[in-house]
């Protein structure tokens, strides 16, 4: 993640993020003995708990936040890690609120210590606790080996003079001397201080970054937070960290053995802060017992076989609390507003009317694993007022003139009667009770060109399945034809270009009509779209929009060179079809799963940084497009036959994209040559009558395969006509029935320890769009903001901090 981490002085960090009173002078608190502080990690954790609790016990009862307690949790993981499919990990020290539910969650079960020897059992019962991500208020993580620190430790450990008198670990707080600026700004004309952010890729530092980000990600996935604080300790130095969805702000290091007042005052201020100041989203609160019971008792499904029963049961998973999300009535969308596109935009300078609608949620159906970026979180929600299930999605949108709130996009699409799209019932930026929009602050310190992110919430009427749940090959192509119709109508009728066609944004919606189960396609996730009237506006940032695996080859190979156009989205539809076939159908790569995974990764996952810092990839994909190849051979089914089926459809599409890239060839020849590629690099059958399909839009063409002229080359994918014709010839043949290509199990989820981890990473990557690219302005020449010093994070684990999940980078 480039330029997403900023260092600031201690004064700046405390002033900007941790307001509140310091400990009173003369307070007796737990200090640190140097030999104890750096001996072992377990010793550090014990001393940190003692010091933190010594501070928390001196917080006035009338302070704004709940009373806190620090617990040593480095040996005991959260039990919910066993059920959510993530890696099990635990930080060294967790600060919890003192309440009955939290205590129950983090207390180690009585049976667990009995499995250990008496001495260890006694220590467990007295000093240790379990990680409980739902209740974490603050994390403290420690290392004793300097090579394990992702931050540079000052060369001189004696640079700061002691401000305390220490005797056997007990310190009496002495007021520090008047503050002296510890960081010099560029505007003052002096040299910048050296960066303390380590840029090397040692194994220990990389593992520490992964541990830190994994722990923060787990907290953000389970709680409703706007930002989050952690403390990192290495030997006798500590750093204060504040995470939000735009980046990470880190304080300069301080010697907490020689200057314990710094850490003590931070902990005291943190304990005195309110939940809002600590980053809590106060629009989400624990549901009452009566509300939770009402959600758990919901049974209004369309039929005994209603597929929503399974995901709804997952939302009520044991161990996951039920929360109530409050949505202002001002954000609700009526049917009349959908047709007329007349909903007034929010006035963020004024508080809402005060009337709220309640939606109950449990375990999310999807959460993005990155700690920065859009951070999409989706729930199947219970609408209290209407006694129904709906779909709730929240994410952080870019605050730019050409970044459109998704609810506004749906209003525009519905006003033009665009088919096969979802129905919004509420949408809006999330605001606190004072009317202030929830937004990020890291961009204030990471760079002048970084844009603020705003929290956004969208409620949809339909709960749908992802495209991967299609039942057979005919069903797959029927759905893609409907998505293509939605995309075409959105562009021609409403002037909206989607720009994020991917397997996760193409949905199947099942419903009952006249006592029959039917389904139709839904093209969703319009948050990265652009309006036709904006397409010619100058771009000040190199960018790509979309999900990496499905982005057009030419956009991957030549970042920032081509503007995103209609044909790039149409190519993404083709990549989705290829991806689904490789994943769920028998091909020449299926016999060897390792070979299949390597083949898919080489085509769809490979990327590297070029000289300008942009992510570049897609070389094999580009060759496939230019040669008119299909990246696999089907085995059985429609393979080699002249009847309609996947085989014949893929050949027809291959002829189209070969022609498109032949037309593009003169433009590519004027660009820098492509560098050599890295060497690394039985479901139920759906019936025709069940699928709600658009009527045939084109007149019948000449039967047989499409014939594409070779000379002169034509831009055959610059509109939807030829693509739609290829699908229609496959779907609407009167003389030859469709030849099915059997759908298999998910071949990307092969249950092998090595391959399973590889494909888990691949599935995570499939939800991501490119990392933020370098600005057209040379960031290296930017002036450093007052009181800050920004540096890149270029270790191999940087992606742990970054998000590729649909972050639009154009401003």
List key phrases describing it.
811 residues; 20 helices; 27 strands; 17% strand; globular; disordered C terminus
What does this structure look like?
By secondary structure, this protein is α+β, with helices and mostly antiparallel strands. 28% of the residues lie in helices and 17% in strands. It has a domain of 268 residues. It contains 20 helices and 27 strands. The C terminus is likely disordered. The radius of gyration is 28 Å and the shape is globular. Strands 1, 3, 4, 5, 8, 9, 10, 11 and 27 form a 9-stranded mixed beta sheet that branches. Strands 12, 13, 14, 15, 16, 17, 18 and 19 form an 8-stranded antiparallel beta sheet that branches. It has a 3-stranded antiparallel beta sheet with strand order 2-7-6.
In the predicted model, the low-confidence regions spanning at least 5 consecutive residues are: 157-168, 174-193, 674-682, 751-811
Gross geometry:
globular
Q: What composes the largest sheet?
A: 9 strands, mixed
The rounded Rg comes to 28 Å
Topology:
Blueprint: E1 5-8, H1 10-17, E2 28-30, H2 34-37, H3 41-56, E3 68-72, E4 93-97, H4 100-106, H5 118-127, E5 138-143, E6 164-167, E7 170-173, H6 203-222, E8 228-234, E9 237-244, E10 247-251, E11 254-255, H7 260-272, E12 284-286, H8 289-296, H9 309-315, E13 323-328, H10 335-340, E14 356-361, E15 366-367, E16 377-383, E17 388-398, H11 406-415, E18 424-429, H12 443-446, E19 453-460, E20 465-466, H13 473-494, E21 496-497, E22 506-513, E23 516-523, E24 530-531, H14 553-557, H15 566-584, H16 593-605, E25 607-609, E26 615-617, H17 619-627, H18 646-669, H19 721-731, H20 753-765, E27 788-791
Helix pairs in contact: 3-7, 13-15, 13-19, 16-20, 17-18, 18-19
